[in-house]
Specification:
- This protein has 98 residues and is α+β, with helices and mostly antiparallel strands.
- The chain is built from 2 helices and 3 strands, in the order H-E-E-E-H.
- A hairpin with a 4-residue loop joins strand 2 and strand 3.
């Protein structure tokens, strides 16, 4: 009887460990932005630009912009309107004299 209980406990424990490592809803990603992303943003109101590269947790490049109002906006990096705007923000920050 004791061996059966130990075996059941071991199987339950290993199952719990496997389930804990699985992703939620089968997506396999833990991205900051999720699925909802903007394709346009006011480039003149950007306070902070954060670019997160692809990683083991998220298989897509993520771009988050903080506006002067404090609002954070996730951007679609592959959008034709977003990439040039990001390049413009980075170029403006690079050549700005502080």
């Amino acid at each position: 009887m004791a061996k059966t209980l130990v075996l059941i406990f071991a199987v339950a424990l290993s199952t719990c460990l496997l389930v804990q490592g699985m992703s939620i809803a089968g997506y396999g990603q833990r991205c900051i932005c999720g699925k909802k992303k903007a394709t346009r943003f006011p480039a003149g109101r950007v306070v902070k630009l954060e670019i997160y590269p692809e990683s083991h947790r998220c298989t897509q490049k993520e771009v988050i912009v903080t506006l002067k109002t404090g609002t954070k906006v996730c951007l679609d990096y592959n959008s034709k309107a977003v990439r040039p705007a990001i390049d413009g923000v980075l170029r403006r920050r690079l050549f700005r004299n502080d």
